[in-house]
Structures are given as C-alpha cells and as structure tokens.
Write a structure and sequence with these properties.
By secondary structure, the protein is an alpha+beta fold. It contains five helices and 19 strands. The strands form three sheets. A seven-stranded mixed beta sheet has the order 3-2-1-6-7-4-5. A five-stranded mixed barrel has the order 8-9-10-13-12. The chain has a five-stranded mixed barrel with strand order 14-15-16-19-18.
Length: 402
C-alpha cells in the first residue's frame, strides 16, 4: 500500500511538472510578437524598428535588408497602389503595418513586410477632409428618421438662423456613430440608420442642394449627447474636472475636461445681446456686438481643427460691422471667441456645455463660460450649443494599410 501511494505521488508530481511546463510554454507563446502589428513608429535604431500598437503595447522588430517596404496613401485599401520606399524614409510618428516573418530566428522578431503611411501624408489627408467637411458638410439635431426611405431631417441654427435640412442616405453612404463616452471621430464605428434617433447630433457631407437645405450624403456621423447648464461648485486641476449641479436634473455632475474640449468665454455685453436675440429680442441691435471684436476680413475661428467636420471651424465674413459677423450666425460667432483653458474656470462661474452621454460623469465636448444672461433663455441657448461644432479630426483615416 505504501509503495502504491508513493508511486501515485511520483506520478502526480510528474504530471504536475508536465502541466507547469506546458503552462509556462503557453505563456511564452502568448507573449511572443503577434504575426501582424498595426501601430505607430516610436523609435528607429540601426536596423530595429519599435512599433506601439493601437492596443498600447510596444514591440521591437528587426528589419533585414530583404524586407518588402512600401508606402501607401492614408485610407487607401488597394495595396497594388503602394509604392516602394527605403527603410531610411521611415520616421517616428509614421503609421505602419508590420508582418512578422514566421521563420524569424529564435528569440527575435523579424519583419517580412512593412507597409507605411507617412505622418505628413496623414496631416495632408486630415486637412483635405476638414476642407471637404467645411465645403460639403451640414449638421444639426435630428428631428426625425425614416429608415425605410433613407431620409433624416435635421434642425440647425438658432433664432433667425434656424433651418430644416433633409439628409438622404443611400446604400453607398458610410454611416458611423460615436463610441460611448467618446468624442473622437477616429473611434466612431459603423452603425445602421436605425441607430439614429430624434435628439441626436448628426453631421453629414455630400452633394448639397443650391440652398443647402438638402444633401445626398456620402458620409454620416451621429451620436447621443447631453446638454448641461449650471454653476461650477469646484475645479480639480489635477484630475482635469469641474463639478456642478445640472440645473435641469438637479443632479451633481462631474465634468471631465480633455484637450479636445472646445471652451470659450463670452464677454458680458455680448452674452446679453445674444440672449436677447435668442429670445427674439432686438435683432442685431448694438451694431458690432455680434462681431465679437473680430472685425477684419473673414477672420478665422478658433474652432479650426476641432470643428473640422461640422463646418463651423471658420468664422464667416463681412467687415464685422452692423452685427453681421459670420453671416449673422451665432454659432460661427461662438467659434470666433478666444479659447479658454481649465485654469481659466473658477468656482461660481456659470457654464453651459454639450457633453458625452452619462448619468453623473461625463466628458465635455463644448463649453461656454460667462453665460449668466443665456440661462434666462435656456432652450434657445441649448439649441445654440447643439449646433456648435463638437468633433475633432475631420474624419481622417490615420490607420495604416488594412
């Protein structure tokens, strides 16, 4: 009996050792470089390339002289259009797809093929997309959706600039929706038309009618966002947050302020005049109050890159006189105001914002300070904010080859 028991212990010990070895081997295999890396070049040393993947992991890859290395335009999916390039042409910040040689020497990861998108090409593509959204884009709040007919009706503008826009969606239209708690255009994912609901914010670009009141959309992006108004109770600079009580829901809210947030402060006199206009008061009274002090010939709005696809990034024209800056559009006027930072906000400031959807914890997309007079016309003011550009990136496809 003792011998049998000892034998059993030995067999169990061997099985345990074998199992441990198998687990160790599996762990080692799991830790190996994936067969394919998509990410951004973070360093180049000799013949070694370091790639940080979109998942946040970094890998060092040896690049032999025999590697196939090609350059492709951002967003291009046809690899036959890729052009040969040299390893010396790669630079930190470039996007890459690296295929790992399955026959790499033990303990190393060696590239078999590299397809790169130059960072400079990405920037050019982003600028082209921004220009196209500016030229062919429309945006506003969703009023109704007829999924079967492929028709979305938007309301856009505020007060005297309010209008209704019809967006027609075809089978070839690219439909995207913002990821939950995200304001990043690049993180938006494909979604069907029936995912769009009344009250959503939506941007579309395509062939517009002469009056700009209808568009045959090539691309549509939508999302559900919140309107919040209140007085700041505290500012946490370390956490990049502000807290306030939402005047509508009476809930205490934590607002996260990211570098992508658009923040402006309205001068007191301008806020008073804007409130009057939104309430249907003295339209354009007070002359240059609508110009925001911009004056000049077609001053550019500060919304620039963040406002790209919404079509509000550039403040419209005129001479800044007679209340006509931005063509009389308060939304464009907002983008002309000087930007503020988190450090400019303090306890007691009244703010209005559009944020990601959430019960008590949200991320700011657009935020206006100095809005005490506007809180007297809350519905009109929220309409103003809803139609102010909210996104960033302009729809650039920064990813490397598919």
């Amino acid at each position: 009996m003792m011998q049998t028991w000892n034998t059993g212990l030995k067999i169990g010990s061997r099985l345990g050792t074998a199992l441990l070895a198998a687990l160790t081997l599996a762990s080692a295999i799991g830790a190996q470089t994936p067969a394919r890396l998509i990410g951004t070049v973070t360093s180049l040393t000799g013949d070694t390339l370091t790639v940080k993947t979109d998942a946040g992991q970094s890998y060092q890859v040896a690049v032999p002289a025999s590697v196939s290395l090609k350059r492709i335009a951002p967003g291009e999916k046809d690899l036959t259009k890729a052009e040969a390039m040299q390893f010396s042409d790669l630079a930190v910040g470039d996007r890459t797809l690296v295929k790992i040689d399955p026959d790499s020497p033990a303990g190393t990861s060696q590239a078999l093929q590299i397809i790169a998108v130059k960072s400079g090409d990405v920037l050019k593509k982003q600028q082209a997309d921004r220009d196209d959204w500016q030229k062919r884009g429309v945006g506003g709040l969703v009023k109704s959706v007829d999924a079967s007919a492929g028709v979305i009706v938007l309301t856009s503008g505020s007060g005297t600039t309010a209008k209704t826009i019809t967006v027609r969606v075809a089978k070839t239209t690219t439909l995207k929706r913002y990821a939950p708690a995200s304001i990043s255009f690049e993180l938006a994912t494909a979604a069907p038309i029936d995912a769009i609901h009344a009250g959503d914010q939506l941007r579309a670009r395509g062939a517009k009618s002469a009056d700009g009141l209808s568009v045959d959309a090539d691309e549509v992006i939508s999302g559900t966002f919140r309107n919040i108004s209140g007085v700041i109770a505290s500012v946490d600079a370390a956490a990049s947050t502000v807290s306030l009580k939402d005047l509508a829901t009476k809930k205490q809210m934590t607002i996260h302020i990211t570098p992508e947030a658009q923040m402006r402060r309205i001068p007191e006199r301008m806020a008073t005049m804007l409130a009057m206009r939104l309430k249907g008061g003295a339209s354009g009274a007070g002359g240059g109050g609508w110009s925001g002090g911009a004056g000049g010939n077609g001053a550019a709005g500060g919304g620039g890159t963040r406002a790209a696809y919404g079509g509000q990034g550039q403040a419209g024209g005129g001479q800044g006189a007679g209340g006509q800056a931005g063509g009389g559009d308060p939304n464009r006027m907002l983008s002309m105001l000087p930007a503020i930072q988190l450090a400019d906000l303090k306890k007691g400031d009244a703010v209005m914002l559009v944020s990601t959807d959430g019960a008590t914890d949200v991320t700011a997309i657009t935020l206006l300070a100095g809005v005490e007079p506007l809180l007297e016309a809350p519905q009109a003011s929220q309409s103003l904010l809803n139609n102010w550009s909210m996104g960033s990136g302009g729809g650039a496809e920064a990813a490397a080859a598919q």
